[in-house]
Design brief:
Elements: H1 6-9, H2 12-19, H3 45-61, H4 66-73, H5 77-84
């Protein structure tokens, strides 16, 4: 969560109105539900994991065993099974 100085991002009239309720404290303003991004979307981590999982599924379809995939991708057998059998 990033902090912003209210007087730098809000109109003066809104800052004065907020000061009627909270002075010198922190005020959490939640994101709009439709404006929130899912984990990893901003950094690209989600896309990287999706690509890796697609490669794992393809390798499995091409005949690699779960044990081989676990060793090749440095994941547990349980994790590989979750990826391979994911719908």
């Amino acid at each position: 969560m990033k902090y912003y100085k209210a007087e730098l991002v809000l109109p003066d009239s809104l800052v004065r109105e907020l000061q009627r309720y909270v002075q010198g404290g922190y005020l959490y303003i939640p994101s709009q539900k439709d404006g929130r991004r899912k984990w990893g979307e901003l950094s690209g981590s989600r896309a990287e994991l999706n690509e890796r999982n697609a490669r794992i599924r393809q390798d499995y379809a091409d005949g690699s065993s779960v044990d081989e995939l676990a060793e090749a991708y440095y994941l547990s057998v349980h994790s590989i099974r979750k990826i391979v059998y994911e719908k």
